[in-house]
Structure prediction request, 962 residues.
Amino acid sequence: MSETTPASGAAEAATEPFRYSSTLAADIESRWQDVWEKEGTFNAPNPVGPLSDATAGAGSVSAKPHSFIMDMFPYPSGAGLHVGHPLGYIATDVYARYQRMNGHNVLHTLGYDAFGLPAEQHAVATGEHPRISTEAAIANMRSQLRRLGLGHDSRRSISTIDPEYYRWTQWIFLQIFNSWYDAEAATARPIAELVAQFESGERPTPDGRGWSELSGTERDEVLGEYRLAYSKEVPVNWCPGLGTVLANEEVTADGRSERGNFPVFKSKLRQWMMRITAYGDRLIADLDPLDWPEAIKLQQRNWIGRSEGARVDFAVSADAAITVFTTRPDTLFGATYMVLAPEHELVDSIVPAAWPAETHEDWKGGAATPAEAVAVYRAAAAAKSDVERQVEAKVKTGVFTGAYATNPVSGESVPVFIADYVLMGYGTGAIMAVPAHDHRDFAMATAFSLPMRCVVQPTDGRGTDPHEWDDAFDTYDSVIVNSANADISLDGLSVVEAKAAATAWLTERGIGEGTVNFRLRDWLFSRQRYWGEPFPIVYDEDGVMHALPESMLPVEVPEVEDYSPHTYDPYDAASSPKTPLSRNEAWVNVELDLGDGVRSYRRETNTMPNWAGSCWYELRYIDPVNTERVVDPANEQYWLGPTEAKPAGGVDLYVGGAEHAVLHLLYARFWHKVLHDLGHVSSVEPFHKLFNQGMITADVYRDERGFPVPAAEIEERDGGYFWQGEAVKREAGKMGKSLKNAVAPDTICEEYGADTLRLYEMAMGPLDVSRPWDTRAVVGSYRFLQRLWRNVVSEATGELVVTDEPADEPTLRALHKAIDGIRGDMSGLRFNTAVAKAIELNNYLVKRGSTPREVAEPLVLLVAPLAPHIAEELWRKLGHAESLVYADYPVADPVYVVDESVTCVVQIKGKVKARLEVAPSISDAELEALALADPAVIAAIGDAPIRKVIARAPKLVNIVTG
RNA sequence: GCCGGGUUGGUGGAACGGCAUACACAGAAGCCUCAAAAGCUUCCGCCCGAAAGGGCUUGCGGGUUCGAAUCCCGCACCCGGCACCA
Prediction:
């Protein structure tokens, strides 16, 4: 093609002036990013309010289809991004751009979840205010992300540390605080309605006194039993090493803090709680209409842990009973002892003064009296961290309380133990032990020589004497035996039938009832930290709690001398927390007028946990500058309102890591439901469709000592890996600074451009699986864009090289098949195969030798969501004055989607023996005849008889011989 | 222990129950070039064979089916989640 002289050709070839190089890519990208920013290309209009589009008019907004496409927002880490971070952001951006080109009004933005421990720890270490380091980190991330060409509506980008944001976090807290759950109506209601019931006497107070007779703190106590956000002395996970308490979810299985890996102890402290358990049933039931991965739904269901069973009363004296929860009321006749959690409140009242006669020595724990045994055991249990409990889980420990209870069906007197394998937080904190049919009870009974009785017929050949067994028999698939008294017999019933029969019998007698229990606990909502949202709560001089009025929000994070929480020796279980905010006395003690004149108050000095800001940010994206309301109902209804396609409403697509399967998603659902119940939002669920993107992993190279060495400096030779001449080992791992294998997106942008990075990340594999980063392979995506560029633009002149002749039929077929396939892939978030199809079409054009405009234009549009900058540039060169962000995505012409002829394979007994080129419209009969006439087929059949012929026109014929 | 998910070329990965290995990386050869780069063309699962061709192949073992990477049962290994929850 080039007719230049050898000399100039050589010079020019090395630097084709209009070649799609990294320099050109950088130029194109920054130019288009500026255009998008200047023109507010990605600003999505709201129906009402300051973000409504005055020129378009509300009508045009609501007439358009619309999508709310959202990422799980990041914590702005000071370390900056590596290429793994933007994977999800690129995917949502591709999808958002695709939807815009399908005529949608698309809400797509990104905010920052900016309260958090790392900034606070940095502040403690350096004395620099966390706001300064956090805002610097946000600025850094913004510029890193800007280079990727993400089409965000920057007007809607919020940050959780912005007082104008967290005033609404505090406002929502107040809504939750000021409501209670009406279980009968299955909805949250204002606490004022409950107060009115108490005032009128419609609802009696716990001790029967009139409401007006109660003191302020007594009223607080009463209402605290109802409020959806309440403060209470509760057993919590106290982590002396961090100086703060932690939610159950933040404690690992081996009893350590998820952050810092410090031991965690059970301690009773006054803390803020959220009554998420009230929503247990709805949080399970409402998963059904959601378009979420089944695995995530399952994890949530397991976490909530709904189990059906019965409450049963075991009398311990004439006027006291121990209530247990069991899922096996069918085995009630087999309950031969009972166990209470060590902290159970009934323990003290049932303990007798002396050991009953003939008490087994092993049951006494070496103590002279039951009270002493209980006290010693309790102290030992409390001092144990969960780690120790975990390690010792196999060995059952406990002591006899000296008390006996009566089994309500057998009438037997059964000993009552305390043991730490029974947890105070689950059920009633008390169990009936059925050692023959429960592994834990069996272990306990074996250790303490407790009686056992078989009440479920063994089906595995073992005898009916449990003392001869190795372990409990816990199958549900059998029948009940040994279970009859004068009133009832369960004998011969299946486990399922017996459960129902036993429950009915208990209910009738008023000594039990069917009930549902949840594994889920109330959510511990306070932390002893500096860098979090303060509670909008104050206490008066009598210690009575007061919610601040809306007009006093936000309660801003005060300045303090020292940001650190008071930490202790990590093993000092007896320590208790001191909050950083309490250091600022001037802030803590305030004079306020809360309606009855100026009085002195003390502020709540705990702060909210990290999760608070992320529990509702989807709502603020919708109406980020609304100063009157958390979100205008019209805007909420527009973006999140329930429709036929999403019956519970919610964000159309929410993309993020599976590590948030339980915590964030459960908390956000809970808050959303409370807001729904109180009438603030029309949607029942915050996120309609959830998609979990996989992780980008990277090879980790370790030297002999096992320390990671910089992955970028590894040499590969002779089938081994070397760093500075030393042999190192390779393993798979996460990408990150500590493993010295992080690759910054900036590096890839410099070397190839953002479009290449976007394309490569999308092409690597399916979005939902983890895949290893391979810098070497990035060049493949770069070459594709270069070929695309060359198909449209001359590298030598920068002029268009597309032809204006109409495309021939095979080319149109290639085009329309690509359109059809890519559309399907885009809609299904299968970007890897979409990229492959675009490459195929482009390669077809390379081979063809020239590119008709008729094909170039749709091809550019097809690629636009994936590689938007180069697409805009080519679109402009093709003569379009407008950005293609709102151009129509190509639609396939069905005439060209099918091939002119298709290859039909002829199988003989399932093995391919011949191929035929046939028309797609061929009938089964014609195809069969054609196949049987084919010489290769005739030869392959030989003289074997034909038993059967299966024809599936137009693709396959299978001949069964013999 | 319980509950999920996975296992396809040297590598990342494609495949409505119907041609296994699309697309890409890496590798090989060629064209172009004084040369290199870039580009283009061809080859590239394994085994036998000079070739033509043949056989085998989706972790392993069974089954369903005319036909299985795909559905069912069992097993192995890997990755997640939960874990004394009565």
